[in-house]
Automatic annotation (TrEMBL):
Belongs to the HpcH/HpaI aldolase family. The lineage of its organism: Bacteria, Pseudomonadati, Verrucomicrobiota, Verrucomicrobiia, Verrucomicrobiales. The keyword Lyase applies. Residues 11-232 form the HpcH/HpaI aldolase/citrate lyase domain. GO terms for molecular function: aldehyde-lyase activity; metal ion binding. This is 2-dehydro-3-deoxyglucarate aldolase/4-hydroxy-2-oxoheptanedioate aldolase. InterPro entries: Aldolase/citrate-lyase_domain, HpcH-HpaI_aldolase, Pyrv/PenolPyrv_kinase-like_dom, Pyrv_kinase-like_dom_sf. SUPFAM superfamilies: Phosphoenolpyruvate/pyruvate domain. One of its GO terms (cellular component) is cytoplasm. Keywords: Lyase, Metal-binding.
């Protein structure tokens, strides 16, 4: 994800919601293209982000941080810590997207303040680049409004990925069934089409591997394969159930 404007190759990532640098380091070691550290939901905290970013140092895994809301001060701090990019939830309009872009970029493009002692500049050991690489901006499309305004959001210079939040989008479609004619799959296809027409990437969180073929067929290129918490949970369940089956079979033969 070092070049957000690169041709639409498939980028596989995962969600980090526990806040563990060990899990972040393991995810990088396994070979994920990117990881998402989630400050909107889960057990992540601002204090836990820097240690996870350090755990990724030297790897080829890009670190994206989802902020809970588009507060400019939080976005600036996360980028100062060394995150490669920012995901913002519920981006419902071009105006909202533009405000996020301004928070992520230094003048004259944006309004982000600069600190030469930030981690991203080696705590003062490195001179800030006059033309630093732009941060990756993943704008989440999670509502009917976001779907309807997808074209204008994608047109904002600085938006790199239209990233669908499937749970929130499905909830909004159920809550407001009369406000849009398209169903869930049609909304997904619309977002992908709009993103690619604008030269941007399209992304989505994937809960089941069985859903992946259909999403790839739609054209999604930036896919998060489940989360650390869900993968640990399913691993626990599988291991325990396997052990219980062995115990049950053993007792049946006594």
């Amino acid at each position: 994800m070092s070049d957000p404007s690169a041709a639409h190759r498939i980028r596989l990532g995962t969600w980090l919601s526990i806040g563990s640098p060990v899990i972040a380091e393991l995810a990088a070691g396994v070979g994920y293209d990117w990881v998402l550290m989630d400050l909107e939901h889960g057990c992540e905290s601002e204090a836990a982000i820097p240690s996870q970013l350090r755990a990724l140092r030297g790897s080829n895994t890009s670190a994206i941080v989802r902020v809970g809301a588009p507060h400019p001060d939080l976005i600036g701090r996360v980028l100062d810590w060394g995150a490669r990019g920012i995901m913002v939830p519920h981006v419902n309009s071009a105006e909202a997207a533009q405000e996020c872009v301004e928070a992520m970029h230094y003048p004259p493009v944006g309004k982000r303040g600069i600190s030469r002692s930030a981690r991203v500049y080696g705590y003062g050991l490195n001179v800030p680049d006059a033309s630093p690489p732009p941060p990756v901006f993943m704008a989440q499309i999670e509502t009917i409004d976001g779907v309807v305004n997808a074209a204008s959001i994608a047109a904002v210079d600085g938006v790199d990925v239209l990233f669908v939040g499937p749970a929130d989008l499905q909830f909004d479609l159920r809550a407001r069934p009369n406000e849009i004619a398209e169903g869930y799959d049609e909304c997904l296809k619309h977002v992908v089409t709009i993103a690619h027409a604008a030269g941007k990437e399209s992304g989505i969180l994937v809960r089941k591997a069985s859903d992946l073929p259909a999403l790839l067929e739609m054209g999604f290129t930036c896919l998060a394969m489940d989360s650390d918490l869900a993968l640990i949970r399913s691993g626990f369940q599988k291991a325990l159930q396997g052990a219980r089956n062995v115990v049950a079979n053993s007792q049946a033969h006594i």
